[in-house]
DNA sequence: AAAAAAT
């Protein structure tokens, strides 16, 4: 047992605190505000008027920001913004005929404490006025080298050069090889430098010029490939350079009760609250000192607080679908001004039944049509339903296929242990006892119930554990994530909610206490470790209940040059020749099959769009990874040969 | 089969 007893106690306290047991409940603070509140007087970057109306700026809504001295001399952290300055009430109506904001002072503007630079930029007289630097905000956004929980994991760039990328479609632009101007805006480049990013990842090399060329994009890429930057960089860059777009004229409306409506120009949809929150944090980084105000909305958190933040600026909005629909219904958000639409983890969103809401948001509200916006879709896989979505949401898109990250990189050592269900607990205890101190261990289970039971079991055994799953309150979820990140509870028991997308530094061990039945889930889960060039270990408990994943798992282990236990070979053999043949329903995918629909540009085989394939990967042609051509996914849509249940098999 | 997500 290498974890000190002190640590254990601290974590138990935390655990109780998160359950509200010791009565120290404080007001709910959403994750994107925590740091801001901790640094009591540091203004949130979503402060400021942020309303992206160019008409407002020339009227004096913004003051130029040339440097911190200028800013300070203007009198206060928000002196640049006459709109919101308590000292300079403005009587003019702001845009869209809203009642004057005269006298209205947002709370944070009153409590700003010491005067310092806001870190907020503005758009004024057709030019981007870069905000002054704010050291405190910089530490918050870009990390403090002494605090590992705040450091961005960064990306293991060397490894990334090995990842094959293929871009297909008409007129694929040349990939870029560096963060440079052009095509990226200098302000963005500065933020990229602050974030210690040095080289674009393969996704970014392609997505940056593609988006800069105003093209739509369908990218098959998994989390960890740098795709968040892949869409944020080019979108923010274009925003910085071209400035805000005037929101559509609204019918003037008298009366004071009329709520403000936000007109974001970029909308990013993602499946889970934590993921949306994480994207927002990235957006805050890269929007630093610019005129762009990122905002975030998701369920489970106080809607009024989110509304207040939206009021202070909502140019780039990250959202989960449900809460967004809610806000649209309340008339607080309009999509009429959308220029960029991003669907992240699109396959996941469909899995989770979001399709009706997504279609409503994209097609049933006031969002500009497919020709009048730029749409980027990201998905780990490209099954039929995603192809349909792509067909409906994208125009003449470029298809980008990025190889697996988690599995192909060999910095994750994957172990498979044969453990019967009844033995799992004790094996887990042994495993945790032999854990090196300092690292974080993520334990995946299949059910919420199991997550609760297991974390309680671990705590009962004096292990600093907590859990995250969809039946816990949002507050508890965020608390769990926070105590995990900071190492106060270095063991996190999680359901699928944490499998994808979450970027948690210092996860040294991923344990698949229960194996998922889907190999892509497995890849995502183990991908929580071995990031940032660190090595990671993953251990999976396998028993006869996991036969459904065994073939794909074998294939994956081989692909990643991992040791394969002999007994596993035997299981594969048994399931292949012993039991009933498991039809794979994938058009005869052989070794090399990518499962789950693969990630090929299906248009190539039959569509009229075909264009030259572009491969970033010298040695290999396009066909070396990705699924085989799968017959059932034709463009015409006649075949119902979807993957998954072709074979009716449960052993 | 389970999980996730608006209240």
Task: Kindly list the characteristics that best describe this protein.
Rossmann fold; disordered N terminus; six-stranded parallel beta sheet; disordered C terminus; 33% helix; 651 residues; alpha/beta; DNA-binding; nine-stranded mixed beta sheet; 17 strands
Tell me what the structure shows.
A nine-stranded mixed β-sheet has the order 6-7-5-8-9-4-10-3-17, sandwiched between helices. A six-stranded parallel β-sheet has the order 11-16-15-12-14-13, sandwiched between helices. It is α/β, with parallel strands linked by helices and 651 residues long. Among the domains are: 119-244 and 260-405, P-loop containing nucleotide triphosphate hydrolases (Rossmann fold), CATH 3.40.50.300; 412-576, Rossmann fold (3-Layer(aba) Sandwich). It has helices spanning 5-18, 31-38, 57-61, 68-73, 107-110, 135-142, 157-160, 186-194, 202-212, 227-242, 273-286, 303-311, 321-329, 346-351, 355-364, 384-393, 424-433, 448-460, 474-485, 519-526, 547-559, 566-578, 603-606, and strands spanning 122-124, 127-129, 165-168, 217-220, 266-269, 294-297, 316-319, 340-343, 374-379, 398-402, 412-418, 440-444, 465-468, 491-494, 507-512, 536-542, 614-615. Strand 6 (294-297), helix 12 (303-311) and strand 7 form a beta-alpha-beta unit. It binds one DNA strand of 7 nucleotides through residues 271-273, 298-300, 303, 320-327, 329, 348-349, 351-354, 357, 446-448, 469-471, 495-497, 499, 516-517. Residues 106-115 have a biased composition (Basic and acidic residues). It catalyses: ATP + H2O = ADP + phosphate + H(+). Residues 208-400 form the Helicase ATP-binding domain. Residues 38-50, 90-104 have a biased composition (Polar residues).
